[in-house]
Amino acid sequence: MMLATVMVSFVIKSFFAFQAEGNIVGAFVMPHGGIALDPRYFNTTNATAKAQAWLVHDAAEQVGRQIEDLKPDTIVLSTPHGIAAPEDFIFYLSPKGSGFSDTDNCACPPCCYNLSVAMDTKGSQTLVSTLKAEKENVSYLSAFGPPGNEDVPFPLRWGEVVPLYFTKGILNHSKVIILSQPSRRYTDSVEMIPELRHLGESLFQILHSRPERIVVIISADLAHTHMKSGPYGFSTAAEPFDKACGEWVATQDSEKLVVEAAAYVDKALSCGFTGLVMLDGMLKASSMHWESRLLVNFHPSYYGMMLASFVPGQ
């Protein structure tokens, strides 16, 4: 009887140790605004804004180092500014991706931040076929050749390049899967909430069952209406929207995002909202305890920029 009890205890402990380790070794929210790349070119006379820009940049470098330390085999990146379809979530199905970004107030050239990545075509194909079988609105795009065998890299821009640029130290060893949010996010992000959370749950179950180490990155800027002089004008919704997103990170309380932030998003104009909701679905599908950390949540310019990490707890 004692032996049986010990064996049962060992099995239970082993099961929970396996669950705690998991295959998704971290999830991160990273901005794609050019300020993050190099604040030296950020043209402002506001000392506070300049200081915040550097804090955003430093936090992005810190997150990049953390991702490198996790040694992921695969990085799954959600972008709101990719090549998009109206309805479907699109996976890029090419062996390579390549592109550039510039930074605020300094266009390319001369400020060219170039990036090339190896993409996991087989993993993307598996995700699309599995998610389609679960009735998710997903598809894939190839570019300039037979799907998965193109000679020309798939075009990337700031939504993918900026966050991945901070992880470039491991991109020779890690493959990338890119998921592009549909263009209906511009008008229907609140209506998409149930779908996004369900997609996040499905993604977690599939990714968590894979043998390799996986990091998830949500490319996201927050409200784009912090300044009257900005291209989208000013809205009183911007500040409470960004605050609610930060509180969601700190508390992992879904209502902070899908109720509080959602109440402001139509006027706040956040490109990253749908990716955040999808990530919330992923985290809530897990039995693991996630340790979350909000590194920064500022708006040095007209748009909000947040860096956050979620890693499995002990």
Automatic annotation (TrEMBL):
Residues covered by the Extradiol ring-cleavage dioxygenase class III enzyme subunit B domain: 48-299
Matches recorded under Pfam families: LigB (PF02900)
Gene Ontology molecular function: ferrous iron binding; oxidoreductase activity, acting on single donors with incorporation of molecular oxygen, incorporation of two atoms of oxygen
Native source species: Desmophyllum pertusum
Protein name in UniProt: Extradiol ring-cleavage dioxygenase class III enzyme subunit B domain-containing protein
Signal sequence region: 1-22
Keyword 4Fe-4S assigned: no
InterPro entries per record: Xdiol_dOase_suB (IPR004183)
